Amino acid sequence: MKKMCGFTLIELMIVVVVVGILAAIAMPAYTDFIARGKIAQGTEALSEAKVRMEQVFNSNRSYQLSGGGCPDFSASFSDVPFTIAHDPVCTATTFTLKVTGKSANGMSGYWYSINESNEKKSATPTGSGNCWLMSKGTSCPS
Q1: Which stretches of the chain are DSSP H helices?
Q2: Which tens digits make up the pLDDT trace of 24-67?
Q3: Dihedral, 2, 7, 11, 16 alpha carbons, nearest 10
Q4: Which of 57, 54, 120, 115 is nearest to 88 (CA)?
């Protein structure tokens, strides 16, 4: 009798099912991991913008520029998957900076904000809170 070499159809189907199950588990975990990295980029840039606002205040004794208006930090956010804006505007004694996720970078539904008192707020596609949520399924500590 001749010995057969190779795989049977059943063995091949078992491998396909195992690979499918692994992919079904790994893909959501991978996309959450990527989103957490993008969130870290956005919050880091937002923290840097807050420091720059404090530098403007220390120089001018106002959060507004000497000619009026708010400082523009959009150049600092060119490589970040978020856009920044003053929400709604800065005044002599107050400001709120808000970053909003770019949908082209897969960050639609995410936003983060901070004000002159260091009060942080955020929202993800699955929730919001008075802290910076660092991933989809988290909530603010009590």
Answers
A1: 9-60
A2: 999 988 988 999 999 999 999 999 999 999 999 999 899 998 88
A3: -170
A4: 115
Domains of the chain by residue range: 10-129
pLDDT, residue 38, reads 94
Q: CA dist 55 to 32, 61, 65, 71, 98, Å?
A: 35, 9, 11, 11, 18
Residue-wise pLDDT for 117-141, tens only, equals 999 999 999 889 999 988 877 788 8
10-129, CATH topology level: Glycoprotein, Type 4 Pilin (3.30.700)
**CA-based angle 3:4:8, to the nearest 5?**
150
CB within 8 Å of 45: residues ≥ 6 apart: 76, 77, 80, 82, 84, 99
Encoded tokens for 78: 């060119």
Tokens 């690979």: give the residue.
Answer: 19
Strand partners, 98: 85, 113
